[in-house]
UniProtKB/TrEMBL annotation:
Predominant cellular place of this UniProt entry's protein: membrane
Protein name: ABC-type Co2 transport system permease component-like protein
Organism listed in the record: Clostridium aceticum
Keywords: Cell membrane, Membrane, Transmembrane, Transmembrane helix, Transport
InterPro entries: CbiM/NikMN
Amino acid sequence: MSHIHMPDGIIPTLWWVLGYLLTFSIMFFIFKSMDQEEARKKIPFTGIAAAIMLLGMSVPLVIVPVHLSLAVMTGILIGPKLGFLAVFVVNIILAFFGHGGITIVGLNTLIIGSEVFIGYYLFKYFTQNINKVVGTVMATVLALLVSTTLMVGVVGITAGLTEALPHHHDEEHLQEVQHLEESYDDHDHQHNHGQLSEEVAKIEYFTFAGWKAVFLILAMGILLESLGTALIVKYFLKVRPDLIMPTKDI
C-alpha cells in the first residue's frame, strides 16, 4: 500500500537516480553476501512470493482504495535478501503495466523493500516470546507504518503531499496520470500547500470525509494487509513450517 503510482516525469531526476543507485548498491551487497546454495533452494518459493506480491499490488481491494503489497509475508517466507530482490522484479513488471513509471522503480524498491527487512526482523524478534501469528500482525503493522511514512515523505518532498493521498488507482487511471503531469508542469510549493486542504476535503470513505476518511483508509489498508499476511503465515505454519524463519537470513 506504500507503492508510488506516479508516472515518469514527475519525480525530479536527482531523486529517481539516487533511488536506483541505492537500490543497486543494496542488491550488489545482497549478491556478494548471499549463501548461493541456500538461495538456489529458495528460488521456486521466491517466484511464488513474487507472484503473490504482483497479484496483491495489481488487484484493487473492493472496500478500500489501496493495494496490498504483502512484502512482509515475502520477507518471512524467503528471507530479507531474496525478498528485496523479488520486490525489485515485481516493481519492474508493475512499471511495464503502468503502475508507476520506470524511473520510480528504484524508489519503490527501497520503500517496499524496507517492509521486507523491517517486517522480517520484527517478526524474528516478536516471535521469540509470542505466538507467530500475533507476531506477524505486529511486525506487519509496524513495517507498513514505516514504509507509508517513507512514501509520504518522498512524494511530499518531490511532488507535493496531495499526490500522496489515497487514489482509486484503477479507476480513471489515465485521468490521474494527466492530472499529475499538469500539476507538475505548474508546480509551486505554496500552491500545493493551499491545495492540500481542498484535496483532502474531497476524499470520502463510508460516512467519513476529509482527514478522518484518509486515516480510516490507511487504517483499513494496514488492518487488511496485516490480517492477510497473518493468514498466509498461519497456513504455511501448518503445511510447511520449515519455511517460516529459516536458520539463515538469505
